[in-house]
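Do me a favour: review this protein, sequence plus structure tokens, and tell me how the chain folds. Record follows.
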Amino acid sequence: MDRRAFLMTAIASGALAAAPGAEAAPLLDGRVTRFSDTGLGLSWTAKGRPASVYVSSDPDAPRAFMREVKSGVTGGETKLSLAIAPRPYFLVTAQNGGQVRVAERLLPLKGGRNFRDLGGYRSADGRQVKWGRIYRSGVMTGLTAADMSYLAGLGVSVVCDLRSAQERTSEPSPFLTTDGTRVMAADYELGQSLSSLYRAANRAEAVQAFADAYIGFIDLLTPQYTDMFGHLVRHETPLAMNCSAGKDRTGMGSALVLSVLGVPRETVIADYALSQTYVPPSLYTKQIATGSKVSGVNAAQAQGFGRMPPEVLNVIMGSDPDVMRIALKAVDAKFGGPVELAKSRFGLTDDKVARLRATYLI
């Protein structure tokens, strides 16, 4: 790594403080989108600034150990055709010193349900959550043999299955029959935790009822969230958490993890809202309307959902950002914020929070 890159990395990580009056390198943001089996599109901020693009199969590789695939790129975007196993991770560096690590957020799985990476988000101090360490997902029973091989290549070692006993029995995790991956779960029943949703008459009532249910998950899933944070503290990763849709119980778990890592509130909410981009509410509403099976929903629940006003059902089957916004405000009021909640309920301490940030931010 050259001296400038070393200094910028050290400043971003907090190892060195910027000299008084020195101009810090601008923070870049970027994204990767897939347009074919091997075709990827990269885009980033600081348009007009010449930039270089590097790639590696190691998400944390220093630039000196990455392969340069583009140089002098202007316009803030480029397209690449790459076949890098198990997965390509990119570093974009601009001439003004800004840089960003990017990868696909949604994993390219044939049978995946909302299986995505929590990496890449900026923390409040300008660092990034490491790619390839923490994943979130919906039900995994649809994963194909090729999908399982792909995930094995990523080294997924722990799956925190947040589903109830009935859900896990009706749709067993495919990781239960594989070597090298532990599936962690605890028995519970959803019971009346979502009953208030059936009484919602409009969107506003549905948003509030759903947010209240999310606060209920804190009590209902205390053993699961505690176990999840324990694995992260012990560096037992890559880790994937999942429920049925991958947006509610997993959504709260992901919001807690990102918040503990110091990711700003609006970014946490934006990650939650991505679920309805990757799995639109219309997918579930069509299944309910046609009587098709919906993962995690029994026949009685499906009948109840089918009688709901459309604006209520769309909230329940989606990931309306207002739901998470209200839920996190309630966490602030009740516990003093997600970090204090994690310390009071899920086994974290100030030292463990610091260790998590040192481990999962780059």
